[in-house]
Specification:
Layout: E1 3-8, H1 12-22, E2 29-35, H2 39-49, E3 52-54, H3 57-61, E4 68-71, H4 78-87, E5 92-95, H5 102-115, E6 119-122, H6 129-141, E7 144-153, H7 164-168, H8 170-186, E8 191-197, E9 206-213, E10 218-224, E11 230-238, E12 241-246, E13 251-256, E14 259-262, H9 271-283, H10 293-312, E15 315-317
Parallel strand pairs: 1-2, 1-4, 2-3, 4-5, 5-6, 7-10
Antiparallel strand pairs: 7-11, 8-9, 8-15, 9-10, 11-12, 12-13, 13-14
Helix pairs in contact: 4-5, 5-10, 8-10
């Protein structure tokens, strides 16, 4: 029998998840119910998707047709929905960023652990073929000495978001959180310090940062959400070679002592169905948790360190230690 998914939050991003499920793009998964604060819009979306509507989180998590819960609300409301599902003994997939602050993320981790909850974080960049293959090769080529990632999407600033707190440092929390999480795969020992800068007058739509890795090595990131065009990629230099990945061009170049070669990375694929399939297997006990809650907390720790460094015009400690 298919796993019944209940989605809390069917705005722009939540509707993407819902549409993938409703169209049957994820085997063994069905859309059971949705919940949204705006009842009229929520009921309309439920009718379009052919599922039940609930006007409250509690109603959704206690719906007998809901086997697992997907949380796609603004980050400030994640904890409430995650804990409600956890208390109902249902596995949870929660969107990034996990929380608005490291304190909130750590408190959520403590609560979920005390309840014995099962939570996976949707750090979707991990499923993107170029970045996924790059992280795998980085471990084979390592240790990594330096890595950098860049993201330019000029039209992103035009998108309407209800997450006003995140908008203040939107480049960090809405987009940079992806690469900051991916950096943990390249530098599995984590980070100790962040140096960051945000251009005056950019309204949180761009930032640059350099993170010092524990045990040596550095990771730099540049994000800009205004201007022209779209670029998304990374490069890294390791002990036994180097990589140049371009998500926009869907290519990955490996450089070693024998020269350069293009890596096989497979076809372009939308990431959300891949994330949902991974969550399905985790929820059904078929596989390990692809992105444990602890890793979602560490990504928030890196983002918050960047924001604190921006505030002081210098650097800040990355507090990745968990309770």
């Amino acid at each position: 029998m298919a796993l019944g998914i209940g989605i809390v939050g069917v705005g722009l991003h939540g509707s993407r998840y819902a549409s993938h499920i409703a169209r049957g793009e994820v085997a063994g998964v069905r859309l059971a119910a949705v919940a949204r604060r705006d009842r009229l819009l929520g009921e309309q979306r439920a009718r379009e998707l052919g599922c039940r509507f609930h006007g409250s989180i509690e109603g959704l998590v206690h719906d007998g047709s809901v086997d697992a819960v997907l949380v796609v609300t603004p980050a400030g409301a994640h904890a409430q929905a995650v804990l409600a599902a956890t208390r109902a003994r249902k596995p949870v997939l929660v969107e990034k960023p996990l929380a608005h602050s490291l304190d909130e993320a750590r408190e959520l981790l403590r609560e979920v652990r005390s309840q014995g909850g099962r939570v996976m974080v949707a750090q979707t960049l991990r499923w993107e073929p170029v970045y996924r293959k790059g992280a795998e090769l980085a471990q084979a080529l390592g240790p990594v000495r330096h890595a950098q990632a860049f993201f330019l999407k000029g039209d992103f600033a035009q998108r309407i978001s209800s997450d006003t707190r995140t908008d203040y440092h939107r480049a960090v929390y809405a987009c940079g959180i992806h690469q900051l999480d991916w950096a943990g795969l390249v530098f599995p020992g984590g980070f100790v310090r962040a140096h960051a800068h945000e251009s005056p007058g950019e309204d949180g739509l761009s930032f640059g940062a350099l993170l010092e890795a524990r045990g040596g090595g550095t990771f730099s990131i540049a994000v800009r959400l205004k201007g022209e065009g779209t670029r998304d990629g990374f490069s890294l230099i390791a002990e036994r070679g180097a990589l140049l990945g371009d998500r926009t061009e869907h290519s990955l170049l490996r450089v070693g002592t024998s020269g350069a070669s293009r890596e096989e990375i497979g076809p372009r694929e939308p990431t959300l169905p891949l994330v949902l399939a991974s969550f399905r297997d985790f929820a059904l006990g078929r596989s390990e948790n692809a992105v444990p809650l602890e890793e979602g907390v560490r990504a928030v720790a890196r983002a918050e360190a960047c924001v604190r460094a921006i505030a002081v015009g210098g650097s800040a400690a990355v507090e990745e230690d968990l309770p």
